[in-house]
C-alpha cells in the first residue's frame, strides 16, 4: 500500500478500482471473439468504473479494436459476457446501446454538414430542433470548432475532422465513450495538445472513456488506468505508474518505455527485503527489489532496469561491488532534457542509461569510448518472473 | 519550335480526335439521316420516301428537294392519339419497371457487397450469367412460365389456390415482369459499384448513433449511393422505353409501347418518315433526364473531396 501512494494514488483523489465495494460500470467477463482460427480477444476480464479514462494499449493486431467493437456491439461476444450497469449487453444491437464510438477513420457522414453530423444522434432521439441546435452549439464550443457549422467534412482539416467526430460521439451523453486511436491521424505537436484537451473534456463530461492506442507515451499521458493487451489477452491492468514501475512480464516491460533486461538466477534474500541474484552480465552480482509472489533459489528470472535509474560514473572504479558494472560508452544521444548513453559491457552486452541534463552538473569524462562504471539502484531494479 | 516540343500537342490532338470521329460516325451521322428522313414524305418507291437528295444533280434540284421537306410527320405524331398514347403508356410501364428494379436492386446490391471479399466475383458472375443466353430466348421462356397452362398456373392450381387459370400473359403485368427480368443486371451492377464503395464504418456510425437498420439505409446508404441509383435507373429506363421484344412477346395485341409502334410503322407500314419522326420524339423525351443526370454528376464532382 505504501508504494501505491508513492507512485500514483496521490495524483488522483479517486481510485474506485482499488475499492472492493465500488460497483463497476462495465464488467467484461471472460469475453472471447474468434475469427476462424484467430482468437482476436481471448478470455478478457475487466471492470471499468464510472468517470475513468482507460487506455487499451498493445502492439498492432493484439485485439484492441476488436474488444472496443465488442463493447459497441459491432462484434458479437463468442464466449463470456459484457455487462453495463449490471445488464448483459448480449442481445443488444449497436443502436440500442448506451455507448458511443469515435471511429479511427472518424466516419463522418460526407453528405452532411458539421452541424448535422454532430446533431445526427440527437435527431435519432427525437429531440426538438431548437434543443438540438443549442446542444450542437454547446458541443462545438467544447471541442473548439465554432464557426465550422455549415462546412462539409471534405472542407475540414484532419484536426477539425477529429474534433467533429469527438463532438458527434459525445452528443448523446453516452455513459461510455469508445475511442479507437483518436490521435492516430494527427501530427505529433497537435497530438500532445489534443491529449490534454481530451483529458479535460473527459473530466468535464464525467463519462467513462475507453481509448485504444498503440502509443505507450499517449497512454501514459492520458490514462487513469492502462490495460496492456498482447495476443488477444489482457496481460496487465494498472495505473501508468504500476505499468511502468512494476511490469508483470518481460513483454510488458519491453513494450512500455525503454528498459534494460538482464537474465539472472535467484540466489537468496537479504534481511532488508532485497533479492540477491547471480547475473552473467554483471559479474559483481545484483540485488533488486522483491516482487510480489514467491521466489525460489535457483529460479531463472529477468531483471529489468529503466535507463534513468542507472548512474553512469566516469572511469573504471576499482571497488566495483554488487550492482556495479564496467563498460565503454559506445554512443551518446543528446535529447535536450536527457542524454542517453549506450554502454557496451565487458561481455559485449549493450546497456542504455540516461542522465538528466540539469545544467548544474557538468559531466566530465563521459565522452565517446570513455571507460565508465554503471551503478544500478537496487530499489529500482525489477525482478520479472514471466 | 522543334518537332520534339510540338509532338505532345499533336498526340493530344489525336487523342481528342479519335473519340470525336467515333461519335460523328456512330451517332451524329445516323442522327442526321434519321432527322432528314423524319422531314420527308412516304412514297411507294425504292427507297420508300421523297425527296432523295442527290448532291450531283445541280443546285436547282437541291433547293427543290430542300423545299419539299415537311413537318407533316410531326403533326401526325402529335395529333394522332395513337402515338401520344403509345408514348405515355411506354413511359408508365418503363417507369414502373424502373421503380420495381430499384426496389429489387438495392437489397441485391447490398447483399452482394456484404459477401466475403473472395465470394464477390462469384456473386457478380451470377448476376451477369443470363447474358450468356440469347435475350430473345429468355423472354420467350417466360411465355411458357406465364401462359394459362404454364408453370405458375400449374403450381397455383396444384396448391388448390385457383380453379381458373389467371391470365398473366398479354397484360401490363407481364410486360413489367419481362422488363424487370431483362434489365435487372443493368440496375444491380451500378448500384453494387456505388454501395460497395461506401466505407462500412459510415453505416456503423449511424447504428452507433441510434439508427435501426432501415433508418441507416434511409439516412446514409441511400443518399450516398444516389449517383449509382441514378445511373442504374437511366440504364434500365432508356432501353425499357423503346423495348420491342418484351411487349411483342409478353404484351397483348392492344398493348401500346412506342418501340413496338415504331417497329410496325417501319416494317409493316413501310412509313419510314413517320417511324423516323417517332424516333426523334423518343430521343427528345429521353434527353431531359440524361441532361439532368449529367448536371447532378457535375455538381457532385465539383463538391466532392
Ligand atoms: N473481421 C475480421 N475478420 C478476420 N480477422 C479479423 C477481423 N478483425 C480483426 N481480425 C483479426 O483479429 C486480430 C486483432 O485485430 P484488431 O483489429 O482487434 O487489432 P488491433 O489491436 O486493433 O490492431 P491495430 O493496432 O493494428 O489496429 C488480428 O489478427 C486481425 O487480423
Ligand atoms: Mg485497431
Report what the structure shows.
- The complex is a heterodimer of chains A (386) and B (305).
- Chain A is 23% helix and 34% strand.
- Chain A is of the alpha+beta class and 386 residues long.
- Chain A has two domains: 3-98 and 174-250, P-loop containing nucleotide triphosphate hydrolases (Rossmann fold), CATH 3.40.50.300; 258-384, OB fold (Dihydrolipoamide Acetyltransferase, E2P) (Beta Barrel), CATH 2.40.50.140.
- In chain A, the strands form four sheets. Chain A has a six-stranded mixed beta sheet, with helices on both faces. A five-stranded antiparallel beta sheet of chain A has the order 13-12-11-14-20.
- By secondary structure, chain B is an all-alpha fold.
- Chain B has one domain (78-303): MetI-like fold, CATH 1.10.3720.
- Chain B has 13 helices and two strands.
- In chain B, strand 1 and strand 2 form a beta hairpin.
- Chain A binds chain B through residues 72, 74, 93-95, 99-101, 103, 105, 107-111, 120-121, 124-125, 152, 154, 168-169, 171-172, and chain B through 199, 201-202, 204-212, 215, 219-220, 223-224, 303-305.
- The complex binds adenosine-5'-triphosphate (ATP) and magnesium ion.
- The site of adenosine-5'-triphosphate has 12 residues of chain A, from strand 2 and helix 2.
CATH H-tier superfamily of chain B: MetI-like
Radius of gyration of chain B: 25 Å
Topology, number of strands of chain A = 20
- The Cα radius of gyration of chain A reads 25 Å
Distance between the termini of chain A: 23 Å
Biggest interface between protein chains, with counts per chain? Answer: A-B, 25 and 20 residues
Distinct helical segment count of chain A = 9
Helix count, DSSP H or I runs of 4 or more residues of chain B: 13
CATH architecture of the largest domain in chain A: 3-Layer(aba) Sandwich
Coarse shape of chain A: elongated
Strand order across the largest sheet of chain A:
6-7-8-3-9-10
**Helical content of chain A (DSSP H or I, runs of 4+):** 10-25%
Amino acid at each position: 500500500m505504501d508504494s501505491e501512494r508513492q507512485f500514483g494514488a496521490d495524483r488522483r483523489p479517486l481510485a474506485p478500482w482499488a475499492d472492493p465495494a465500488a460497483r463497476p460500470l462495465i464488467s467484461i467477463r471472460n469475453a472471447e471473439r474468434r475469427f476462424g482460427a484467430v482468437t482476436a480477444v481471448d478470455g478478457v476480464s475487466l471492470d471499468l468504473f464510472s468517470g475513468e479514462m482507460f487506455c487499451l494499449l498493445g502492439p498492432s493486431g493484439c485485439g484492441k479494436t476488436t474488444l472496443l467493437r465488442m463493447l459497441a456491439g459491432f462484434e458479437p461476444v463468442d464466449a463470456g459476457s459484457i455487462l453495463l450497469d449490471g445488464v448483459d449487453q448480449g442481445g443488444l444491437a449497436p443502436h440500442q446501446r448506451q455507448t458511443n464510438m469515435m471511429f479511427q477513420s472518424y466516419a463522418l457522414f460526407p453528405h452532411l454538414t458539421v452541424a448535422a453530423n454532430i446533431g445526427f444522434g440527437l435527431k435519432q432521439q427525437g429531440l426538438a430542433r431548437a434543443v438540438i441546435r443549442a446542444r450542437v452549439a454547446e458541443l462545438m464550443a467544447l471541442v473548439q470548432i465554432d464557426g465550422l457549422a455549415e462546412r462539409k467534412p471534405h472542407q475540414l482539416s484532419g484536426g477539425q475532422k477529429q474534433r467533429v467526430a469527438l463532438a458527434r460521439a459525445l452528443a448523446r451523453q453516452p455513459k461510455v465513450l469508445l475511442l479507437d486511436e483518436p490521435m492516430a491521424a494527427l501530427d505529433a505537436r497537435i497530438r500532445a495538445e489534443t491529449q490534454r484537451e481530451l483529458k479535460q473534456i473527459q473530466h468535464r463530461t464525467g463519462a467513462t472513456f475507453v481509448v485504444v492506442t498503440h502509443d505507450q507515451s499517449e497512454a501514459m499521458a492520458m490514462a487513469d488506468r492502462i490495460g496492456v493487451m498482447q495476443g488477444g489477452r489482457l496481460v496487465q491492468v494498472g495505473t501508468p505508474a504500476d505499468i511502468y514501475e512494476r511490469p508483470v512480464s518481460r513483454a510488458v516491460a519491453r513494450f512500455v518505455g525503454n528498459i534494460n533486461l538482464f537474465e539472472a538466477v535467484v540466489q537468496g534474500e537479504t534481511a532488508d527485503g532485497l533479492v540477491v541474484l547471480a547475473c552473467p552480465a554483471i559479474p559483481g552480482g545484483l540485488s533488486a527489489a522483491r516482487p510480489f509472489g514467491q521466489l525460489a533459489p535457483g529460479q531463472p528470472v529477468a531483471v529489468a532496469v529503466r535507463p534513468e535509474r542507472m548512474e553512469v560514473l566516469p572511469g573504471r572504479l576499482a571497488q566495483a561491488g554488487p550492482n556495479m558494472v564496467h563498460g565503454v560508452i559506445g554512443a551518446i544521444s543528446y535529447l535536450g532534457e536527457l542524454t542517453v548513453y549506450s554502454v557496451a559491457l565487458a561481455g559485449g552486452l549493450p546497456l542504455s542509461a540516461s542522465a538528466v541534463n540539469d545544467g548544474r552538473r557538468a559531466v566530465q569524462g563521459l565522452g565517446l569510448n570513455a571507460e565508465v562504471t554503471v551503478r544500478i539502484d537496487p530499489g529500482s531494479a525489477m525482478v520479472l518472473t514471466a | 519550335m522543334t518537332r520534339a516540343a510540338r509532338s505532345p500537342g499533336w498526340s493530344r490532338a489525336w487523342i481528342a480526335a479519335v473519340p470525336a470521329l467515333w461519335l460523328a460516325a456512330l451517332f451524329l451521322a445516323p442522327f442526321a439521316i434519321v432527322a432528314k428522313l423524319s422531314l420527308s414524305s412516304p412514297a411507294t418507291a425504292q427507297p420508300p420516301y421523297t425527296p432523295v437528295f442527290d448532291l450531283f444533280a445541280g443546285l436547282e434540284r437541291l433547293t427543290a428537294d430542300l423545299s419539299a421537306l415537311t413537318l407533316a410527320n410531326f403533326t401526325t405524331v402529335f395529333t394522332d392519339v395513337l402515338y401520344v398514347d403509345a408514348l405515355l403508356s411506354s413511359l408508365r410501364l418503363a417507369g414502373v419497371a424502373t421503380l420495381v428494379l430499384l426496389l429489387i436492386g438495392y437489397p441485391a446490391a447490398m447483399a452482394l457487397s456484404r459477401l466475403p471479399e473472395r465470394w464477390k466475383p462469384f456473386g457478380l458472375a451470377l448476376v451477369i450469367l443470363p447474358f450468356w443466353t440469347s435475350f430473345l430466348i429468355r423472354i420467350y421462356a417466360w411465355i411458357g412460365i406465364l401462359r394459362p397452362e404454364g408453370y405458375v398456373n400449374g403450381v397455383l392450381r396444384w396448391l388448390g389456390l385457383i380453379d381458373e387459370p389467371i391470365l398473366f400473359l398479354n397484360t401490363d403485368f407481364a410486360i413489367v415482369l419481362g422488363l424487370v427480368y431483362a434489365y435487372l443486371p443493368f440496375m444491380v451492377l451500378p448500384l453494387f459499384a456505388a454501395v460497395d464503395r461506401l466505407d462500412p464504418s459510415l453505416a456503423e456510425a449511424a447504428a452507433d448513433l441510434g439508427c435501426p437498420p432501415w433508418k441507416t439505409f434511409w439516412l446514409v446508404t441511400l443518399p450516398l449511393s444516389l449517383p449509382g441509383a441514378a445511373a442504374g435507373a437511366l440504364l434500365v429506363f432508356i432501353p425499357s422505353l423503346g423495348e420491342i421484344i418484351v411487349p411483342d412477346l409478353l404484351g397483348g395485341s392492344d398493348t401500346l409501347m412506342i418501340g413496338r409502334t415504331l417497329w410496325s410503322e417501319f416494317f409493316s407500314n413501310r412509313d419510314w418518315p413517320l417511324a423516323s419522326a417517332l424516333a426523334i420524339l423518343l430521343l427528345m423525351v429521353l434527353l431531359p433526364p440524361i441532361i439532368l443526370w449529367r448536371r447532378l454528376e457535375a455538381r457532385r464532382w465539383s463538391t466532392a473531396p
